[in-house]
Amino acid sequence: MILSSFLYLFTVALLAFVLASVEKVTKHKIFTFLPAVVLIYAAAMLLAHLGLWQENESIYQSYKNVKTVLLPAMLFVMLLQIDLKAFVGLGRALIIAYVASVLSLAFSFIFLFWLFSLDHDAAGVFATLAGSWTGGTANMLAVAGALDVKENLMGYALIVDSIDYTLWVMTLLLLVGFAPLFNRWTKAPLRFKMVDEVEPSQRQVKSAPLLLLFIFSLLIAYLSNYLASQLGALSTTTWSVLFATFFGLIGSQTKLKKIVGSSALSSAMLMFLIALIGSQAHLRGFSEVPLYLGVGLLILLLHALIMVIIAKVFRLDLFSIGVASLANIGGVASAPILAAAYHRSLIGVAVLMAIMGYMIGTFAGLGIGYVLQGLAS
Length: 377
Known about the structure:
single chain, Na+/H+ antiporter like fold
């Protein structure tokens, strides 16, 4: 049994590295249905359940301290990729589709939570899931931290996110062939331009600027936590997340945005955070999985119905509402795949929408979470 906080952190980091590397190297089909983040969380939770490390004060304090610093640091680095000008340049139809996607998801979460009269634990699960489905896994962690969602409840959110999301991706891909028929029904004109495909950067990653960015992200984390400790009304973690988001948006307008490798750095932070949270969860109380999976599917179906109505009213095409939906629910990992199924030149649209979710997801998830907590009390 591990008693040292150092060995605990080392083991958790090693676990995240191994599983993330296996996904990248093997590209096995299992990762299509169970992304590395889910397997990392599940493996860390299993090791905790088996007693690999002791639940002592030293280890818990290490977990808490690292999470407190790493969460705002990761958010800051991740948000450097935001490009507000490029998003505005997408055009009216695509922006309407994106906004409709966010609002319809918010309504679906709130309405179905109220309809099923779910409890406070469920509020934490679906608030966390809302952070993911309007942004991404990083936003999921931000919302969970800000709302003080228990570590084991994160397991529910990750399971629903993985399974229901996979079904949603499959559905949207199957509908691609029906686009001409759908577009005739909505009377959608071909009004948005094909945009250039986003090419991956060929510039070499340099260690010095990347190390500088990491150091700067730690400074931002310290500043965010310090400012958060001076304020009331909301929890310290909530303020810290909001400050990190604000600083990230400012940083996206500076030369920090041009540092090559920032996306890989934020992904590494994310994997480690997922492993940390899983290491403090427990394999018990998972009997509610079928309920949460079912409600998650109903959320997606209600969201789809609203999006179809919006498409009819505003004469939107199937691509616009489909990629807007998946940019929220699937993020950067899957939205470009759907876009490529229509036309490779549309990949850039999907990437821009998905990256916008990095900014929107935290605010949307927190807003939905506060409403759900109010309904549960």
